[in-house]
């Protein structure tokens, strides 16, 4: 039965905030793992005789292909079984495989281990966001998802800084081993110290949450028919491509353009991508909730403004002849605005998807992000860098990085279209469906 105004909780409980804290920490490890390969690009290239194209594939396709294959089935599973138990299994699985990466003896073994990580990471984000949507009411939902996305920045900072530090003193293998241990502890805490939230308790929908779960085809058709969801998905896919560039290539950019050591590049990349990105994601969610009283369309102003500002500031940061500290400060600001879209994008999509198809809809989002964003975004920049190396030498990556900011143009346009459809929907009192 759909919750009524009598039995629907007025606000999130303390246990829901505790669950959010654990999920933030798990999401931190999820992203710390993703940061390890970028910060270890140079020693991995040297040991396994790889080039930038190979490293783009290792940090992108090796993880995103199994992620893409497993993500939607994981999302469908999240709509059917206990999400707490599923999340604990996923966190424990990728943590174990991350630790085992330390024992890779060849480039093939390295690719296989990264594929295993991608498989277990596949369901974490859609199932986590589905769980959070059922823990927090709409008035604070973007804020909660912004806090959740703090884990991305926290993880990137820890992964880059820790990876650079451990690599300098103990080698790249030790970095993977150290990264795998905390997740096993967090997996146990998730399983033993949190509960499963009631599905749909904050949703205003006529459909009972006990209704038959949608098939993959029906969920995909729903996403394609809904003009708002479709444009949010496209905007987040383009935006995610740029985030993949931030996470993958910033450490090498700093080493090649600013002649930093591995440790310096790791720490600085952590501050730029990790701290800057985390604050941007949280700020975007907070601002979106403040605008939310004016409707969902007002929330879309946040990703439109964020992607536009990031494009402008990023170009200024890397095209100008700045002092290194000034360039790094500007790049941090570009990353800050570049992550504004995450919380309002996810929160709006989760709200519109409804309780019976929430996890699988978010999983379809994640598949598009990883199939396009993390597979092609990082790899294309690596390929452009290789093509430009003959002419620009160590500066080739800087020019490839600058060009990648153009991906925020279609991102902003799709968020603008989503806003326009939401305005029309509100004026018509109907849906945004074709």
UniProtKB/TrEMBL annotation:
<dbReference type="Pfam" id="PF07690">
    <property type="entry name" value="MFS_1"/>
</dbReference>
<feature type="domain" description="Major facilitator superfamily (MFS) profile">
    <location>
        <begin position="19"/>
        <end position="422"/>
    </location>
</feature>
<dbReference type="GO" id="GO:0022857">
    <property type="term" value="F:transmembrane transporter activity"/>
</dbReference>
<feature type="transmembrane region" description="Helical">
    <location>
        <begin position="172"/>
        <end position="192"/>
    </location>
</feature>
<feature type="transmembrane region" description="Helical">
    <location>
        <begin position="300"/>
        <end position="319"/>
    </location>
</feature>
<feature type="transmembrane region" description="Helical">
    <location>
        <begin position="53"/>
        <end position="74"/>
    </location>
</feature>
<keyword id="KW-0813">Transport</keyword>
<dbReference type="InterPro" id="IPR044770">
    <property type="entry name" value="MFS_spinster-like"/>
</dbReference>
<protein>
    <submittedName>
        <fullName>MFS transporter</fullName>
    </submittedName>
</protein>
<feature type="transmembrane region" description="Helical">
    <location>
        <begin position="325"/>
        <end position="347"/>
    </location>
</feature>
<feature type="transmembrane region" description="Helical">
    <location>
        <begin position="396"/>
        <end position="416"/>
    </location>
</feature>
<feature type="transmembrane region" description="Helical">
    <location>
        <begin position="86"/>
        <end position="105"/>
    </location>
</feature>
<feature type="transmembrane region" description="Helical">
    <location>
        <begin position="359"/>
        <end position="384"/>
    </location>
</feature>
<dbReference type="GO" id="GO:0016020">
    <property type="term" value="C:membrane"/>
</dbReference>
<feature type="transmembrane region" description="Helical">
    <location>
        <begin position="17"/>
        <end position="41"/>
    </location>
</feature>
<feature type="transmembrane region" description="Helical">
    <location>
        <begin position="228"/>
        <end position="249"/>
    </location>
</feature>
<dbReference type="InterPro" id="IPR020846">
    <property type="entry name" value="MFS_dom"/>
</dbReference>
<feature type="transmembrane region" description="Helical">
    <location>
        <begin position="111"/>
        <end position="132"/>
    </location>
</feature>
<keyword id="KW-0812">Transmembrane</keyword>
<dbReference type="InterPro" id="IPR036259">
    <property type="entry name" value="MFS_trans_sf"/>
</dbReference>
<keyword id="KW-1133">Transmembrane helix</keyword>
<dbReference type="InterPro" id="IPR011701">
    <property type="entry name" value="MFS"/>
</dbReference>
<feature type="transmembrane region" description="Helical">
    <location>
        <begin position="144"/>
        <end position="166"/>
    </location>
</feature>
<keyword id="KW-0472">Membrane</keyword>
<feature type="transmembrane region" description="Helical">
    <location>
        <begin position="269"/>
        <end position="288"/>
    </location>
</feature>
């Amino acid at each position: 039965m759909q919750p009524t105004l009598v039995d629907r909780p007025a606000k999130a409980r303390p246990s829901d905030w505790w669950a959010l804290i654990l999920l933030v920490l798990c999401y931190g490890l999820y992203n710390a793992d993703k940061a390890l390969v970028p910060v270890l690009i140079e020693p991995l290239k040297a040991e396994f005789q790889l080039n930038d194209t190979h490293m783009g594939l290792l940090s992108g396709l090796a993880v995103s292909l199994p992620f893409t294959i497993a993500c939607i089935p994981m999302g469908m599973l999240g709509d059917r079984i206990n999400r707490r138990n599923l999340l604990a299994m996923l966190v424990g699985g990728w943590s174990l495989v991350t630790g085992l990466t330390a024992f890779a003896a060849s480039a093939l073994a390295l690719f296989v281990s990264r594929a295993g990580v991608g498989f277990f990471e596949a369901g974490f984000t859609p199932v986590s966001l589905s769980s959070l949507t059922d823990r927090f009411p709409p008035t604070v939902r973007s804020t909660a998802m912004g806090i959740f996305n703090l884990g991305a920045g926290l993880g990137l900072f820890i992964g880059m800084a820790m990876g650079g530090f451990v690599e300098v003193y103990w080698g790249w293998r030790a970095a993977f081993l150290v990264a795998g241990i905390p997740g096993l502890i967090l997996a146990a805490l998730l399983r033993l110290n949190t509960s499963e939230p009631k599905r749909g308790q904050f949703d205003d929908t006529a459909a009972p949450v006990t209704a038959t779960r949608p098939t993959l085809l029906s969920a995909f058709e729903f996403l394609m028919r809904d003009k708002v969801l479709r444009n949010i998905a496209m905007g987040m896919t383009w935006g995610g491509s740029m985030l993949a560039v931030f996470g993958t290539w910033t450490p090498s950019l700093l080493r090649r353009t600013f002649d930093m050591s591995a440790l310096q590049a790791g720490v600085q990349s952590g501050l730029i991508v990790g701290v800057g990105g985390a604050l941007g994601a949280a700020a975007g969610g907070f601002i979106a909730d403040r605008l939310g009283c004016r409707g969902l369309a007002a929330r879309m102003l946040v990703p439109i403004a964020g992607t536009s500002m990031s494009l402008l500031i990023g170009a200024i940061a890397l095209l100008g002849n700045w002092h290194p500290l000034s360039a790094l400060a500007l790049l941090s600001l570009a990353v800050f605005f570049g992550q504004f879209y995450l919380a309002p994008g996810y929160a709006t999509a989760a709200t519109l998807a409804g309780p019976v198809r929430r996890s699988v809809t978010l999983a379809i989002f994640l598949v598009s992000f990883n199939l396009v964003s993390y597979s092609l975004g990082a790899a294309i920049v690596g390929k452009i860098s290789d093509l430009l190396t003959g002419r620009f030498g160590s500066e080739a990556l800087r020019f490839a990085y600058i060009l990648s900011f153009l991906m925020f143009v279609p991102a902003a346009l799709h968020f603008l279209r989503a806003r326009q459809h939401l305005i029309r929907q509100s004026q018509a009192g109907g849906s945004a469906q074709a």
